[in-house]
Description:
Largest sheet of chain A: none
Largest interface: A-B, 18 and 25 residues
Oligomer: heterodimer
Helix content of chain B: 25-40%
CATH class of the largest domain in chain A: Mainly Alpha
CATH architecture of the largest domain in chain A: Orthogonal Bundle
Mean pLDDT of chain A: 89
Domain ABC transmembrane type-1 (chain A): 84-277
Membrane topology (chain A): Multi-pass membrane protein
Low-confidence stretches of chain B: none
Number of helices of chain B: 8
Helix content of chain A: over 70%
Mean pLDDT of chain B: 87
Keywords (chain A): Cell membrane, Membrane, Transmembrane, Transmembrane helix, Transport
CATH topology of the largest domain in chain A: MetI-like fold
Strand order of the largest sheet of chain B: 5-6-7-3-8-9
Number of helices of chain A: 11
Distance between the termini of chain A: 19 Å
Family (chain A): Belongs to the binding-protein-dependent transport system permease family.
Structural class of chain B: alpha/beta
Subcellular location (chain A): Cell membrane
Radius of gyration of chain B: 18 Å
Distance between the termini of chain B: 36 Å
CATH superfamily of the largest domain in chain A: MetI-like
Number of strands of chain A: 0
Amino acid sequence: MRQSLIPVLTIVAAIFAIWYAAAIWLNAPWARDVAARGDQELSVTELVAATWSQEKPKLPAPHQVAVELYDTVIDKKVTSKRSLVYHSWITLSATLLGFALGTALGFALAIGIVYNRVMDKSVMPWVIASQTVPILAIAPMIIVVLNAMGLSGLLPKAMISMYLSFFPVVVGMVKGLRSPDAMQLDQMRTWNAGAAQEFLKLRLPSSMPYLFTSMKIAMAASLVGAIVGELPTGAVAGLGARLLAGSYYGQTIQIWSALIMAAVLAAVMVGTIGAVQRLVLKRMGMA
Amino acid sequence: MIYAKSLDLTFETNDGPVHALRDVNLEVGKGDFVSFIGPSGCGKTTFLRVMADLEQPTAGTVTVNGVSPEEARRARAYGYVFQAAGLYPWRTIGGNIRLPLEIMGYSKADQDTRVKRVLDLVELSGFEKKFPWQLSGGMQQRASIARALAFDADILLMDEPFGALDEIVRDHLNEQLLALWRRTEKTICFVTHSIPEAVYLSTRIVVMSPRPGRITDVIESPLPRERPLDIRDTPEFLEVAHRVREGLRAGHAYEE
Lengths: 287, 256
C-alpha cells in the first residue's frame, strides 16, 4: 500500500497538470475573444484565470468540475431533480438489473453451449454477431419496441445493459466450465458421477476465477448500456440524460461531472466484485 | 478378478490406425499385485484404461469382477490413481478424500470415519484441514491414493502414480504401498516404467512392447510377500530384474 502511494500520487498529479494545461490551451481563444471585444489587454495571469473560470468552457478545469460535483451531490437533496445522486441512482438501478439479467443469461447460455452439442455448434456465432451491431443503433429500437409493448422506465434500459453484459459472461463461463482437464473428467467417470455432480463439484468451482473476471467486464459494459439506454428516451433522468442535456445547452461542466460520476460508479461496482472475488477465492483456498 | 481375452484396441488417428493393443490375454487373481512395464507406446496405460472403462476395446473381451468394465465402473468396483494427484485446489485434503464419498452418497458420519481411516493408512493424519498446495508432491500423491481407498473397491488401478516423484520419495512410497496392500488385501494393477519398482512391488510382472502394443512376457515373482527395501540387493531380486530387462529387450523395446 505504502509503496504504491507515491507512484499513484505522481500519476494523479501529472493528470491534473495536463488537464489544467489543456484547459488553458483550449479555452484561451474564447477568453481572448471576450477581451478583444471589451478592448482589454490580458496579462498572462489574467488569461490563465479567465480560462479556468468560464461558464461554458470547451474544457472545464478540474476545480470547476469539483465545485459542480459538490453542488449537485452534497448540497442538493437526493430527491431533487438537480441532484446528481438522484440521477446516479436512476442509472445505477438500471445497470444493476441489467447486470443481473445479463449474468444470468450469459450463465444459462454457457451451460447450454458446454452441455449441448447443437448449441455448441450454433450459438457462439450469434453471440459474437450480436456484439458487432453498434449498441447506439439498437438501443433506440429496443426502447421504442418495448415502449409499444407497454414497457417503459427501468426495464428497457436494463435490457440494453443485459444486451451488452451477457457477452463477457458467456465467453468467460464457457472457458471456465471447460477448464477441468481430461484427467479430472476421467476421474469423475471412475467414480460414476452423474452429470449434475460433475457440474456442481468440478465444473462450477473450476470456473469461479473466470466468472469473476467476466463479471467485472460485464459490470462496466452494463453501465455503458444503461447510459446509452437513457439517451433516446428524451433525457428525462439518469446520468445519460445529464450528458445529453449538458450537450444540448453547452453545459460542459455538467457533462464532465456526470462523466466523473459514471467513472466513480463503475470503479465502485467493479471494485466490489473484486472484493467479493478475493473473499470467495480465499475461502476456496484458490487465492 | 480381472480377465482379458484376445483384446484388441485400435485408435483411428489422422496418420492412420494405431494398434494400441493387440491380442492381449491376461488373468489377474484376487489379491495379486500386477505391474505393467514397457516403453512408452506399449499400451500399458491403455490396457489399464480399458479395465476402468475409460477406453473401449475394438475386439476381444474383458471382465472385471466377472462383469464388463462398464458394469464394474457403475458398481464402483475399482479405485483409480492417476499419474498426477489431481486434487481439487479448492478442497482441503479431507474434502478431496470426501469427494468420491459424497458422490457415492455415503452418510456424513460414515464419510468422517472413512476419511480418518484412510488418512491414517497413508500416514497423513493431521493433514485433513490442509489445502493441497500446502503439501509436498509425495504427500499429495499419498492423499490421492487415500482418496482411491476411501470407498470399498477391491481393485486399485494405478497409472504411474509415482512417476513424477524423485527416487527417495518413490522408495518410501513403494514401501508404504506394499504395506498397505498387505493390510488391505486389495488387488492392484500398477503401471510403471521403472524395472526396480516393478520387481520390488509385484507378485506378477507383465512385460509389454510397442507397435503394436502387446504382452511379451509374464513373470511370476519368487519373492516373498514381506519385502524390506534391501531385498533389492538379493540375488533373487536381481534375477527377476534381469528377466524383465531381457523381456523388454526381446520386445525390441530398446531400439530407437
